[in-house]
């Protein structure tokens, strides 16, 4: 039996059969449920690969999903909750962020050189959280059955073994083949890893529960492990998603329009899109129709075009040109319709970009829609700025290498301030993420956009984005409370994985033992 180490709070690991199986959702739901039970709980993800990140109150950068999970716990996020963050920039390279600070770039091969150090950082971070809280719910990464990566794993079974964690494996039934995925995941693990897998959870189930019962009994008989919950499909749980996989699925139904017209927003989905969670606040506005686009013709009927953040501004700018989207954006502006650039998108709107840091491309011509110049610096700017616009208070966060200079005295059309950036005509730019989550600012901005675009649209007066997020977190807690064996979860936290769980024979030779 895996016991909690002396002096450490109980913890368990939520692993998944695949990426996007529901690890983040289940982790947040468990955190919300425990918090509502009066447990002082915290989330943890040892290693996260995501382009959606956020800045903590102490100025550290962590994955957005862990910040959402911290909100589910009712606590502020910290670097301890996501000690290692990988931010992909090219086809093979990622920026490595350790305890909230970038330490360099790594590719798939030389990243192995970081592994020993990062494993130590991850284990120490979890131990520190377990000393501060009553319970910790850990989220794995990808799948624990990625056997080619097991020897260097620090986020799944490598972490479970090092920290003595019982493991729940969640599978997405909506993909199909969930029982094969659960059984196969377990069978591919070496015996010492299998000994920590205490049960399964099935996610995104639609249909009559009794139709699933025979499968639940059979997977338990085949593996010796129970299914601790079947979570039903629930629309609208898309806020604060971790990666762009979620952009290929339904982002929830558009709410009924207010006023006589709908405001149509086209968000350009670049290959290295980051912090697209900035758009979440628009999607909860009644009458605002948001869609992600990748082709010029998809901008044709848009009232507002958004160029979101990017982990690789110059590369994504080249992609815009290759696709003809740069001309489509320019035509949109020539027609007098608004464009909003956020962070990397703001940088693309510049006349010139000098990048010897991120891409090494040197001087690059921007879209030329704002009288600005961008110079990339090696030190990353991380902050949680505050300001105002339209007479409304704005709280935000910023994550960028590029420093933008505005030519305020342009004779051909001087810009005016907009948050920390500028506006000229229908073109707006800012480095601030999260600004649209501020209700008063968002309403004023959308009203301005509608006026510029010539649309008869009136923002709702009562949309409360913070309340929307809270309602989604409560829905996750309800999923756990209503559809999981919470007594079994408590036992796993208190006692660890049961003794003598059966070993499932692998499909091939057993891998060499790993620590």
Describe the 3D structure.
There is one protein chain. Helix 1 (23-36) packs across helix 13. The protein has two domains: 11-238 and 470-495, 3-Layer(aba) Sandwich (Rossmann fold), CATH 3.40.50; 259-459, Rossmann fold. A seven-stranded mixed β-sheet has the order 15-13-16-18-27-26-25. The chain has a six-stranded parallel β-sheet with strand order 2-9-1-10-11-12, with helices on both faces. Strands 3-6-7-8 form a four-stranded mixed β-sheet. By secondary structure, the protein is α/β, with parallel strands linked by helices. It is globular and about 80 Å long. Pathway: Cofactor biosynthesis; adenosylcobalamin biosynthesis. The active site is at residues 343, 433. InterPro entries: Class_I_gatase-like, CobQ/CobB/MinD/ParA_Nub-bd_dom, CobQ_GATase1, CobQ_N, CobQ_synth, GATase_3, P-loop_NTPase.
